[in-house]
């Protein structure tokens, strides 16, 4: 079953629809978008092989987590993805620029639940932020009767996070506490806050067009995601890499990923071999492109939202 048929089935499946008081069938956007976000988390961690990251056969450059840790975390976060959508719906009368505080309340709850499920291991903090923004934007758009395709979701996020860099990085007082804050103060990199403030340009310029192009050309979802991850690693100024290996570590990963992208026409098994070797190289250097993993899950989710939006248009 191809991706479009799978989503058509999901959208017609009983749990995704609830009857209104008038007896009309209505899309349960909480279930649809929230479950898609959950599947994005699960698909990302199960994608194998991945360089420097936890997957089905390796813990990558991590000694405190494995795939079971990520599965436990993803299962715990599933209801919170739905709560992000609900929060966006509940704030639909507010302008998009006022959404962030409400979404952050859910985000804090989600982070606390994640840490309880993982014995204080940070598996998904960055992903909670990004997927939470996407889910919140979907709820806001849906409640306003506006299509929640990727481009419109991006516009909402840009408005919601427009002041994020100035408020949390440029004007921050005191010693930097997070990897993103340190990367900004030491190297001027704005990290995930900069991505959000600009509407995730690395996704929209690189990984999303590549993913959707791979799917259109008949490649498997795994192939599309693997190549999309490489494109993110090649272009994302990942604060996780800077935190572990400095600018040199970031440059190394970007150059190696760019080289692998040029091998994209190789047979899948040969590209897998090259990625497996890349994994060993990053493990030896203790480098983990966790920020790119977060953007990969977001890429997949946004691609599905594009399909969902088109399905709804065709149903009208």
List the helices and strands and how they pair.
Blueprint: H1 3-12, E1 17-19, E2 25-27, H2 29-46, H3 67-90, H4 100-117, H5 125-143, H6 150-160, H7 164-170, H8 179-187, H9 191-197, H10 201-216, H11 221-235, H12 239-261, H13 268-284, H14 290-315
Antiparallel strand pairs: 1-2
Can you walk me through this structure?
The chain is mainly alpha-helical. The protein is built from 14 helices and two strands, in the order H-E-E-H-H-H-H-H-H-H-H-H-H-H-H-H. The chain has helices at residues 3-12, 29-46, 67-90, 100-117, 125-143, 150-160, 164-170, 179-187, 191-197, 201-216, 221-235, 239-261, 268-284, 290-315, and strands at 17-19, 25-27. Strands 1-2 form a two-stranded antiparallel ribbon. Helix 4 crosses helix 5 (125-143), helix 5 runs parallel beside helix 14 (290-315) and helix 8 packs across helix 12. The chain is globular. The mean pLDDT is 90.
């Amino acid at each position: 079953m191809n991706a479009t048929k799978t989503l058509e089935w999901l959208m017609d499946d009983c749990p995704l629809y609830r009857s209104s008081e008038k007896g009309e069938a209505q899309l349960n956007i909480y279930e649809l978008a929230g479950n898609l976000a959950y599947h994005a988390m699960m698909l990302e961690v199960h994608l194998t092989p991945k360089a420097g990251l936890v997957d089905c056969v390796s813990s990558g450059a991590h000694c405190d987590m494995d795939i079971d840790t990520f599965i436990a975390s993803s299962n715990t976060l599933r209801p919170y993805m739905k709560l992000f959508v609900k929060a966006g719906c509940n704030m639909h009368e507010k302008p998009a620029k006022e959404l962030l505080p409400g979404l952050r309340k859910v985000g804090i709850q989600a982070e606390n639940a994640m840490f309880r499920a993982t014995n204080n291991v940070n598996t998904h903090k960055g992903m909670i932020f990004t997927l939470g923004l996407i889910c919140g934007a979907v709820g806001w758009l849906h409640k306003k009767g506006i299509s929640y395709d990727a481009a419109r979701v991006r516009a909402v996020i840009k408005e919601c996070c427009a002041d994020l860099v100035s408020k949390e990085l440029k004007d921050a007082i005191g010693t930097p506490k997070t990897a993103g804050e340190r990367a900004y103060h030491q190297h001027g990199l704005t990290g995930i806050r900069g991505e959000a403030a600009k509407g995730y340009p690395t996704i929209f310029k690189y990984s999303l067009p590549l993913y959707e192009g791979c799917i259109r050309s008949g490649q498997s979802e795994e192939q599309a995601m693997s190549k999309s991850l490489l494109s993110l690693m090649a272009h994302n100024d990942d604060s996780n890499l800077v935190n572990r290996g400095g600018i040199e570590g970031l440059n190394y990963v970007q150059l190696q990923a760019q080289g692998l992208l040029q091998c994209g026409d190789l047979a899948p098994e040969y590209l897998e071999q090259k990625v497996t070797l890349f994994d060993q190289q990053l493990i030896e250097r203790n480098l983990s492109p966790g920020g790119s993993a977060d953007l990969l899950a977001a890429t997949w989710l946004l691609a599905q939202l594009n399909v969902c939006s088109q399905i709804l248009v065709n149903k009208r």
